[in-house]
Design brief:
Elements lengths: L1 H5 L3 H11 L4 H14 L3 H10 L3 H10 L3 H9 L3 H17 L3 H10 L3 H10 L3 H11 L2 H17 L3 H10 L3 H10 L3 H6 L1
Helix pairs in contact: 2-3, 3-4, 4-5, 5-6, 6-7, 7-8, 8-9, 9-10, 11-12, 12-13
């Protein structure tokens, strides 16, 4: 078996270990996965790490080779403490891939509901942003987040969106002042 290991013939080593040394199988599977990682065969290493019970290594390998669905599947089967460092990375991927519901799920699991709200706001999905904010943030956090975002929108001359944000947190006076500062009196009177 040692000759198989030195020659990196792990398949034969594992077969022999299964027959003669069952206690060695997990260690061999991990060694095989490590060797595949060094050999830049990251996607092949994932299953060997899973067989060895080295789930953190399997998650890292899946993320490295951009197999996000597989990484997410492994993460979902871990306890919260083990999975916590990976939630944000997976959420960011889904955010960039515009798979917002999945991104929201992992942002929330990571305890980053504000990031989920920001994601939905950037995407123009106000209802989803509001749902997450109301479900996972305190009233004061919602108020601070919405007024901050409204000011950013106001600075970018996106007055309708800023108005929505102000009105959502019942800051009618700030919405009126925004229109007044920008000499949009018709909009100001409407409010």
């Amino acid at each position: 078996m040692e000759a198989y290991r030195k020659g990196h013939s792990f398949r034969r080593a594992v077969d022999l270990a299964r027959r003669e040394f069952p206690g060695e199988v997990t260690r061999l599977e991990e060694e095989w996965g490590d060797w595949l990682m060094v050999s830049k065969q990251v996607d092949a290493a994932i299953n060997h790490f899973i067989e060895a019970g080295r789930n953190i290594k399997a998650i890292e390998a899946a993320i490295e080779c951009r197999q996000w669905a597989k990484a997410a599947g492994i993460i979902d089967n871990q306890d919260r403490d083990t999975a916590l460092p990976f939630y944000k990375r997976v959420a960011k991927h889904y955010d960039e891939a515009r798979q917002w519901e999945e991104a929201e799920r992992y942002y929330v699991k990571a305890g980053l509901a504000t990031d989920a709200v920001d994601m939905y706001t950037r995407a123009g999905k106000w209802e989803a942003a509001h749902k997450v904010a109301m479900g996972y943030l305190t009233d004061s956090e919602v108020h601070i987040l919405y007024t901050k975002r409204a000011r950013e929108l106001e600075a970018g001359h996106k007055f309708k969106e800023a108005e929505k944000m102000y009105l959502t947190v019942k800051e009618h006076d700030q919405a009126i002042n925004m229109y007044k500062k920008n000499r949009m009196y018709d909009q100001m009177i409407r409010l």
